[in-house]
Write a structure and sequence with these properties.
- It contains four helices and six strands, in the order αββββααβαβ.
- By secondary structure, the chain is of the alpha/beta class.
- It has a domain of 78 residues.
- It has a four-stranded mixed beta sheet with strand order 1-5-6-4. A two-stranded antiparallel ribbon has the order 2-3.
- A hairpin with a 7-residue loop joins strand 2 and strand 3.
- Helix 1 runs parallel beside helix 3.
- The chain is globular, with a radius of gyration of 14 Å.
- The model has no long low-confidence stretch (mean pLDDT 92).
Length: 112
Amino acid sequence: MQGVEAVIDKDLCSSLLAIELQADRLIIATDVAAVYLNWGQADARALVNTTPEELADYAFATGSMAPKVAAACAFVRATGKRAVIGSLEQIEDMLAGHAGTQISPIAYQVAS
């Protein structure tokens, strides 16, 4: 046996683990409130409810949001269940469907 150098992406690894464990939901907690289009620009806007298909139309930063979005989309596609990306400070609201970017097989509106 011989060791090799490797990098394991924590987001994609979390998604794979959630799929294998048959988790009810994947929550990716980060330091921002949601996935944003045009991040860092004057016209930035948060995505609230979306689908993997809709997210495929956008480009996200490779070393930042792209792996999180890819991991969440992989989970949703594999399980048909919801994934959420958002702020650790709002984790309970994310779980309840009231915060973060909610990613599901079909876009839906969360009751307020």
